[in-house]
Amino acid sequence: MNPTIVVENVTKSFGKKPVLNEINVTIESGQLYGLIGPSGAGKTTLVKMIVGMEKSDAGSIHVLDKKMPNLAILQEIGYMAQSDALYAELTGEENLKFFASLFKLSKSAQKQRIAYAADLVNLTPDLKKRVSAYSGGMKRRLSLAIALVQDPKLLILDEPTVGIDPELKLSIWNELLRLKNEEGKTIIVTTHVMDEAERCDVVAMVRNGRILASGTPTELKDSYHVGSLDEVFLKAGVNQA
Ligand SMILES: Nc1ncnc2c1ncn2[C@@H]1O[C@H](COP(=O)(O)OP(=O)(O)OP(=O)(O)O)[C@@H](O)[C@H]1O
Asked: Is the predicted ipTM greater than 0.90, yes or no?
């Protein structure tokens, strides 16, 4: 099977500021792929390009064999952005219904998916409340539920667990692993947190718009002769400087 995502020689600047430099990434079907790096490294810009929301200056991106941007492929992508794009005057349930209606789902499948997604993020008791009355963490959880609602082949989650308490964070990670292992979903997660990176099949360490190193967590630690991904990041950064 072809890889789900192929990013080739992608370069991007905003004005005169280079943000991504010659990025190459291949993500296989059914892989949980982590993009890890400090604030401003370029992770969000890269995932926005994979989704088709930003255009690269050079290079190409293919998702499920289609060159991005491609409107039809959006049916296959569940995207959770870093800033919540929610309708504040609608309830949580109405937001979920609205986003579910954008996808090819029957009415009964829609109902089932909304119940599943709301339950996963512990929002079922709050579905009838308006989003304007939600806390920051509740809005993050609703955004994650929206990304999952259409049952996409590919999940792209930009810092999905920021502002979420440890217990729920653990259950979300367990569900991501289940979606990968049992349903064969391909998942991209961006994170600042190394313990989340440890759970990924493959990790790419991003800094200053470049990929410093990539591989499985074990491969990375072995090749840098260190015991943690934090140390890999530090060593890889020194090599770049
Ligand atoms: N629309 C834009 N216009 C101008 N500069 C931008 C724009 N979007 C991002 N940038 C700049 O691009 C760089 C990379 O930003 P990006 O959001 O991709 O980083 P990130 O790794 O996702 O960071 P964080 O973890 O804080 O979200 C930053 O210096 C940011 O200021």
From this structure: yes
